[in-house]
Write a structure and sequence with these properties.
Shape: elongated
Number of helices: 16
Number of strands: 11
Helix content: 40-55%
Order of helices and strands: EHEHHHEEHHHHHHHHEHHEEHEEEEH
Strand order of the largest sheet: 5-6-7-11-10-9-8
Distance between the termini: 41 Å
């Protein structure tokens, strides 16, 4: 099962590293309870060593045998008996990509994919002219090794996958087959317009579950049950998506698609695996695989719950933030796209304009959001409304964003509660002719307060973390704005400069 960014807009299945892309396909990707106890794992006599694998088309006998063996191990590790046969199909890379494209076409409206690419570019998260859909499929064609599709109850493998990569692919994907048999992941994760954050949380649960189990399978393959008695995935330290990305890029060629991808896209691909693994391992430490099974009955409702276990325990639901109306933009503007980014995608986006610690700090306190894009011909205007838990969190996030945008986009102006980048700055009036100076003693108007002098916050250095790709900064079209009011912060991008003040006033109502 896979996804590409929380929006569920396209689907990618990668095997040589843990990536994600939208939500609606099967699952794939591989990384590099009781914690360390095997009590409760079915005995060999309870679960057939080679559960039935049904070949579809031409499947080499040795691949079929290996698939059955790994499915049996996955069932024992994951404490889930195989309920039904799993279909297995081995295809060329081109045929695998064709299956993905067909599924995307059937599941997701094409205008959603186009609009999402435009939204990212307008916000400055991808470079100007970046061909979102085309580049995504290019990345898929380069990396695709296998995927499990719940709708077809089928494990698909690329015919070129061999050796360790084949075993690791099966170890991860076959856990998704078990999830499908027990938790109906195909039904739970179908594309829903405007539900990217909720689908992203489910995607991360699925990928974290499969990755945690896969790591246990690899430990078992190398060291047997004694090895698992000493250490499981839940005993390993947590790692962020940026760390996984840094590791993945080490073995990539200079012209690899993943290396060429914008930072926002690359980190977004990996985040469901990294954050999902952290969540699942935390749940396992409290109650083993039984607790993970219980989490499927009560999955995280948002990526905020995924990232903060205390908020998951408290069942803290995201606040429903209305989409931004666009009457102030005038005639000719129509709503083209709206969605909920969520804390996870917000954190990834914020890192374009500030340090990684700063982006985590700015996103903490997220309570709900709604991003809306309006189009008029080739013009695009975005309003991203974010509601924080309290005013202090909102003010802190706004200060960090202001500092980051000042470095990325230059001088700004303040009009009430709105800070604007890109608007023409009025030149000072010419000096009075000689002899026309103001009379001595006349009180002069005080100079305007200097702009951009917000206090320098300790982690708002905007310096990239060592070893991570540098942020991608894009040329600014129209005006960009940052509005803070109470617990709310709204980010504007691509707005006609003569309409940004009026639109911000409308959105603030």
């Amino acid at each position: 099962m896979t996804s590409w960014n929380k929006s569920a807009a396209l689907i990618l299945s990668l095997v040589s590293l843990p990536l994600a892309f939208g939500s609606s396909l099967g699952c794939s990707g591989t990384p590099a309870g009781s914690t360390g106890k095997l009590s409760g794992i079915p005995k060999a006599g309870d679960q057939p060593e080679a559960p039935q694998i049904v070949p579809v088309g031409d499947v080499p006998p040795e691949v079929r045998a290996l698939t059955g063996k790994i499915l049996a191990v996955a069932a024992r590790i994951r404490h889930l008996r195989v309920k039904a046969p799993v279909n297995l199909s081995v295809l060329s890379g081109a045929d695998l990509v064709g299956i993905v494209k067909k599924h995307v076409k059937e599941e997701i409206p094409p205008e959603v994919i186009r609009a999402e690419g435009t939204l990212f570019e307008t916000l400055g998260l991808t470079p100007a002219g970046y061909k979102y859909e085309e580049e995504t499929y290019g990345l898929l064609e380069e990396e695709l090794a296998g995927l499990y599709m719940p709708e077809a109850k089928t494990m698909y493998l690329a015919s070129t996958v061999k050796g360790d990569e084949l075993g690791e692919t099966l170890a991860h994907e076959l856990v998704h087959a078990l999830q499908d048999q027990y938790f109906d992941i195909g039904g739970k994760m179908k594309y829903q317009a405007g539900a990217s954050d909720a689908l992203g949380a489910l995607q991360a649960l699925a990928e974290g579950d499969a990755t945690s189990a896969m790591i246990d399978e690899l430990i078992y393959a190398k060291k047997g049950e004694e090895g698992l008695a000493q250490m499981t995935a839940a005993d390993l330290p947590d790692r962020g998506a940026e760390e996984f990305l840094e590791e993945a890029l080490k073995d990539k060629k200079p012209d690899a698609a993943l290396k060429r991808a914008p930072r926002f896209i690359a980190v977004g691909l990996i985040a469901p695996y990294a954050d999902g693994l952290t969540f699942v391992n935390a749940v396992r430490r409290r109650g083993g695989w039984e607790a993970v099974n219980a989490a499927w009955g009560k999955p995280p409702a948002s990526t905020e719950q995924l990232l903060h276990l205390d908020k998951y325990d408290a069942a803290e639901k995201p606040v429903l933030v209305p989409f931004a109306t666009g009457a102030a933009l005038g005639t000719g503007w129509t709503k083209a796209h709206d969605d909920v980014f969520g804390e996870q995608e917000g954190r990834i986006a914020f890192a374009e304009w500030m340090s990684l610690p700063g982006s985590h700090r700015a996103a903490t306190g997220w309570g709900g959001d709604h991003v809306t894009m309006y189009d008029s011909g080739d013009q695009h205007a975005v309003a991203w409304r974010i509601l924080f838990d309290d005013e202090a969190d909102a003010k802190d996030a706004a200060q960090l964003l202001s500092l980051g945008w000042g470095k990325a986009y230059g001088t700004s102006q303040v009009k009430g509660d709105l800070e604007i980048w890109g608007a023409p700055i009025k030149a000072p009036p010419p000096p009075l002719p000689a002899g026309k100076e103001k009379p001595t003693g006349e009180k002069k108007a005080p100079p305007p307060p200097p702009k951009g002098k917000l206090p320098q916050l300790p982690d708002a250095t905007n310096q990239p973390q060592p070893g991570t790709p540098p942020p991608v900064l894009v040329p600014m079209k129209g005006c960009r704005g940052l509005q803070t009011a109470g617990k709310g912060v709204t980010l504007f991008a691509g707005v006609p400069c003569d309409k940004i003040s009026a639109w911000s006033a409308e959105v603030a109502k």
